[in-house]
């Protein structure tokens, strides 16, 4: 819901045969959106997002999760989450915010991925939690993005601050993300294009996940 401008031009790259990972390595994909977020004001982002919220509301949506993850700096991740908080006050929809600072590695941290993980753990998560900006922490655990070990560290850090885990996993390869989702009783593990017998067997014995009901959502 919160982004600045579309990336439809990247469909041309896909038609030419470039993979998601290759587009990302060229500065496209998530990094493209991150630059647009950086160049936009909170007011612009709120205005654009309100139009999208109105559209989905007219289509029958009553509750929506909105993630950050197009900031990739402390300042811009907080900007996105601040916009989401403003949307919660302006919109009649139930809105649930998720912190996804670990959506990609910024170009400024290429070759220093561990430093970016440390930034998320030591700076972003404490600030997000102290300001009450998110209910969940999400990580893109996949080939070319964040490793199983890095994901494990970030989820643990988030849980220490009361952020419940969610995971992007196994979209591009077998990443270990499903295993971490089961390990930490994540609310969801998303994408899962690569799911084999071992993952299915593990999920079959996992304990049931406790549902999440926002306070504003009534039955």
Would you kindly provide a written description of the structure presented here, covering whatever features stand out?
There is one protein chain. The mean pLDDT is 91. The protein starts with 9 loop residues before the first helix and ends in a 15-residue tail after the last helix. It contains nine helices and five strands; from the N terminus they run H-H-H-H-E-H-E-H-E-H-E-H-E-H. The chain has a five-stranded parallel beta sheet. 46% of the residues lie in helices and 13% in strands. It is globular. It is of the alpha/beta class. Strand 4, helix 8 (177-183) and strand 5 form a beta-alpha-beta unit. It has helices spanning 10-15, 20-25, 30-38, 42-58, 74-90, 113-130, 148-160, 177-183, 197-204; strands spanning 63-67, 94-102, 136-141, 164-169, 189-191.
Search tags:
219 residues; alpha/beta; globular
Distance between the termini: 25 Å
Q: Per the principal axes of the C-alpha atoms, what is the gross shape?
A: globular
Overall pLDDT, averaged? Answer: 91
For the biggest β-sheet, the strand order reads 1-2-3-4-5
Element pattern in H and E: HHHHEHEHEHEHEH
